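Second attempt. The first submission of Right handed beta helix domain-containing protein had a stray character pasted in from the spreadsheet, which I only caught after the job came back as garbage. Lesson logged: always re-copy from the clean sequence file. Corrected sequence (493 aa) follows.
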Amino acid sequence: MGRSRAVLVAACSLLIAVACPAVARGAEGPGPVCGHQPAEHQRPPSGAVAVDPAVDGDLSAKTAAHPAGTTFWLAPGTHTLGKDEYGQVVPKDGDVYLGAPNAVVDGRGVNRAAFTQQARDVQIRGLTIRGFVALQDQGVVNHDSGDGWLIENTTIEDNAGAGLMAGAGQVVRHSCLRDNGQYGLNAYQAGDGITGLVLEGNEITGNNTGDWEAKVPGCGCSGGAKFWAVNGADIRGNWVHGNHGAGLWADTNNNDFLVEDNLFEANDAEALFYETSYNLVLRGNTFRRNTLVQGRTFAGRGDNFPVATVYLSESGGEPRVRARTSAIDISGNTFEDNWAGITLWENADRFCNSPANTSTGYCTKTAAKSSCTAGAIEKAPAYDDCRWKTQRVEIHGNTFRLDPGRIGCTSLCGRMSLLSNFGTFPDWSPYKGTVVEEAITFRQANRWHDNTYAGPWAFVVHDTSMTVDAAGWQAKPYAQDECSSFGGGSAGC
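This time the job returned cleanly.
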């Protein structure tokens, strides 16, 4: 059932906005959702179980007392759960929760989670869910990553941890994920990972209020939304803005992402961070004033690493990993007054079984851990298959505009980058020296072309010590951005 919903949503996107009002967009792209959900479910539908917070008590008890597939209508007012941290609603398969206007489920800073366990095909529509205190990396809604859930016209805000977890076939549509302590969404499911995830027409804003990267340095555990080992995601028509960290962060063995027609705006760090992952289409998005906080921080401490608005770290196209594309295709996007452009990076020391692989315990999708060991990794096919590679990336038909005065930049902004580091670690690594620097720069089919630039852009190539201007970028040996324009005019040969 969850799969069928995903298909219907995909079909809906092919129709005009009038036919699909939940994802309608104006001329400026996606707009506000928080505070603008439609006033639905003013009365209980036929057959629904009405829940009045002043009369009926605990929503969890009501749920337990009714069979699977029950529709619950939550009357206006504040609904609460149990009096201790484990007060929670445990839905049954096919249960539906409809919120009347101003119906709120409030954890009161006491309950850890709102909706838990692994029932399938649960629907939550029209509710506001706030005040829960989920633990690190745990979530408030769909706490245990049940499959086929639909979250629609719902506000999930002001919670600790993640506002929302995800399962296979989950659809999150026209909802507000706002001001949650760690993530708006944490898309992680134990086992084989999530398939068929859809995020459409949502507002994802202000998340990571707990400043987790400062609390646990190097944790990689913050942002508007985090994806781990998700195989197939459609992310379209969302407004992702003002998150304290990355906007969207796909971290470790994600594959087959379509990210289109979104507005990424004023996220502190990367708008999109695609890390040790595969096969992505990124098209038709607008990126505006992102990465300013991170960029100023790096510049202020003299760190020359090229921060990015779109950051591909050990991520590329891989034909052997099944997806709708066998590349990373970045096209038709507009970048305006961000700190930086796109960085293609590959850490020479990061590979399967290397101590430098921060995705502890994970290997690539093209190799077994047992083949990536000292004495074996030097030989084919392990030598190629044990690395996450930034390869087969095509960047074309995009517009990059920058006015440094508008973003308060005096140095180290306005950079596009294609680079690696000098390999040194571990002792048994076959990738030491300039091996990976040479590969990512010249031999892994990474190509810019037919783009339009306005403003003072620079290009970091091979390693952090080499920066060239547009002429050097287009000239041999780099030969990038053929048929591109650097004066603000139209691209093309």
